[in-house]
Amino acid sequence: MKVLASTALAALMAAGPAGPALADIKIGSTLAMTGPASFLGDPEAKTLEMLVEEVNAAGGINGEMIELIQYDDGADPNKARTFAVRLIEDDEVVAIIGGSTTGTTLALMPEVDAAGIPFISLAGSISIIDPVEPYTFKTPHTDRMACQKVFEDMQKRGISKIGMISGTGGFGASMRKQCLEVASDYGIDVIADESYGPKDADMTPQLTNIKATDGIEAVLNPGFGQGPAIVTRNYSQLGIDLPLYQSHGVASQGFIDLAGNEAAEGVRLPGTALLVADILPADDPQTEIVRAYKTAFEQKYEMPVSTFGGYAHDAFRILVAAIEKAGSSDPEAIRDAIEETSGLVGTTGTYTFSADDHLGLDLSAFKMLEINNGGWTLVD
């Protein structure tokens, strides 16, 4: 799929040949717009389209219009790699935003590195930016940070012994590993450790094992997609009366709808300011940004805004700011300007990159959220 947002360019052309034609700045993306991860890729793609239209309508970047070239990889790493090569070699983009999942992101990274094209990933795993690769950045918090935020909350509640039930996909497996590595830093002992596959439709046996483990005080479910919603429903059906934590991978209204309001009641997870935009304090530095994006997206698409679209929003703002700062569409200059980003406020947090940090967020960027009455509330 190829999207050309050129409203402003058409208007300039209609006005007559006032000067030499301006070149387009070609930005590429490959996202999971369809398939099992479309709940990630669809709002990401819509967000990029909307923002390109807005920037072009306002005159572009340094007077140049943006051409957005998007491909749908369906979360297939092989397709993502193929599209990355096409974007670089055939479409000649100057930067890429994409990689809805960790798997597709990791498939893209060798291609952008070899070509010297800056790439901003929208996936969660810490492996994307640790170790730092010169041309790869990302906007979502890492899975390791999610573990730390959850364990901070457990510490406050006096919880020290937990069970985990993790998805075996790339995200779930990575977050499980990170949680096991940092648990002891917070005095947390994982005394039950279960897992489920991406196509499993019932997690009752694993949850029954956890329920039967003496001393369990809470349960954490690293995972994304439909699995965590099934876990949440089964958890409720089994009558497990212990705090249930989910990952930032399901921080959307879609998770609540899929799990059901009653089953999801009281579930906690680390999320972004975007999910609680309407109740953020007026003096929160993110309030203006998240409310503006939420209003624009929901008016344009008549659907709820999501955390995942927010990741694309932040990636695009980082990229536009870098191109403006570089005063050039040269990929190397853009890469350097991204790395020099400092204090850029997004929907996910405030970004400050460096040569040693291609995420640019700290733990304060996460909000601890709890589901109450079918919606999101802030946890103190």
Automatic annotation (TrEMBL):
UniProt superkingdom: Bacteria
Segment forming the signal sequence: 1-23
UniProt keyword list: Amino-acid transport, Signal, Transport
Pfam families: Peripla_BP_6
InterPro entries referenced in this protein's UniProt entry, alphabetically: BCAA_transport (IPR051010), Leu-bd (IPR028081), Leu_Ile_Val-bd (IPR000709), Peripla_BP_I (IPR028082)
Domain Leucine-binding protein: 25-359
GO biological process, one term: amino acid transport
Family according to the record: Belongs to the leucine-binding protein family.
Protein name: Branched-chain amino acid transport system substrate-binding protein
